[in-house]
C-alpha cells in the first residue's frame, strides 16, 4: 500500500474520531444537567386502600390478637422470624446485636433490655410493656409505631403471619406468658 492510501485511511479514522468527540461535547452543552446535592430520587409513597376500602367500603379489621394467637403455629412463626435473627439474638443468651435480644420479650417493659442503646422513638414508649397487642401493632409497621426508630424493618403485613411470629416470640422464654383472652 502506498503512502497516499495510508494517509486517506488515517485521515478518515481521525476525522471520524474528531466528529464523534465534537458531537459529544456539543450534546453535553445542549443537554447539560446540574448534579443534585444528594444523589437519587425522593419517592413519596402513600398506602393504597385495598379490599373493601378500595371499593368505597370500610377496610376489614384484623381479628383480635388473642383469637389469632389461639390458632397460630409457633413453628411457622420461627420460619418467618429468621429475618429477625439477622439483627436480634433469639437464644436465651439474649445478647445485643444490631437490635436487642428477644428472649423473654413478651410482657417485658419496652426499651428495657440491658446494655442496648434504644432510639428516642422507642424510649418514648418506655412506660409501656411488650404486650401481645403492642407487639402486634409494632410488628405491623415499626415506623408507624415509633416514627424515626432505628429499626428499618418494614413490618409483617399479613395478620396471621404476624400472630405466628408473636406466638414464636412467646415461646422464647423459660416460662411463656399466658395467651390473651379471645
Head-to-tail CA distance between termini? 95 Å
Secondary-structure class: mainly alpha
Tell me about the biggest sheet?
none
Strand content: under 5%
CATH topology of the domain at 63-171: Cytochrome Bc1 Complex, Chain D, domain 2
Q: Report mean pLDDT, rounded to a whole number.
A: 87
Q: Which range best describes the helical content: under 10%, 10-25%, 25-40%, 40-55%, 55-70% or over 70%?
A: 25-40%
Key words describing this protein structure:
182 residues; mainly alpha; Cytochrome Bc1 Complex, Chain D, domain 2; 7 helices; elongated
Task: Walk me through the structure.
The chain has helices at 3-30, 65-70, 74-80, 120-123, 132-140, 142-145, 159-171. The chain is mostly helical and 182 residues long. The chain has a domain at 63-171: Cytochrome Bc1 Complex, Chain D, domain 2 (Orthogonal Bundle). Helix 3 (74-80) packs across helix 7 (159-171) and helix 5 packs across helix 7 (159-171). The chain starts with a helix and ends in an 11-residue tail after the last helix. Residues 51-57 have low confidence and may be disordered.
Summarize the SSE layout with pairings.
Blueprint: H1 3-30, H2 65-70, H3 74-80, H4 120-123, H5 132-140, H6 142-145, H7 159-171
Helix pairs in contact: 3-7, 5-7
Amino acid at each position: 500500500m502506498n503512502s497516499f492510501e495510508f494517509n486517506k485511511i488515517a485521515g478518515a479514522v481521525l476525522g471520524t474520531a474528531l466528529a464523534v468527540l465534537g458531537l459529544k461535547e456539543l450534546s453535553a452543552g445542549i443537554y447539560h444537567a446540574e448534579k443534585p446535592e444528594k444523589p437519587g430520587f425522593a419517592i413519596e409513597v402513600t398506602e393504597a386502600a385495598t379490599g373493601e376500602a378500595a371499593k368505597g367500603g370500610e377496610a376489614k379489621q384484623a381479628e383480635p390478637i388473642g383469637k389469632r394467637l389461639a390458632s397460630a403455629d409457633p413453628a411457622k412463626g420461627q420460619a418467618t422470624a429468621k429475618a429477625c435473627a439477622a439483627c436480634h439474638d433469639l437464644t436465651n443468651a439474649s445478647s445485643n446485636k444490631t437490635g436487642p435480644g428477644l428472649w423473654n420479650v413478651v410482657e417485658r417493659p419496652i426499651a428495657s433490655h440491658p446494655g442496648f442503646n434504644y432510639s428516642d422513638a422507642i424510649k418514648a414508649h418506655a412506660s409501656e410493656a411488650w404486650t401481645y397487642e403492642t407487639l402486634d401493632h409494632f410488628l405491623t409497621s415499626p415506623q408507624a409505631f415509633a416514627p424515626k426508630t432505628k429499626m428499618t424493618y418494614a413490618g409483617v403485613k399479613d395478620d396471621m403471619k404476624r400472630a405466628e411470629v408473636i406466638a414464636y416470640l412467646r415461646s422464647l422464654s423459660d416460662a411463656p406468658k399466658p395467651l390473651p383472652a379471645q
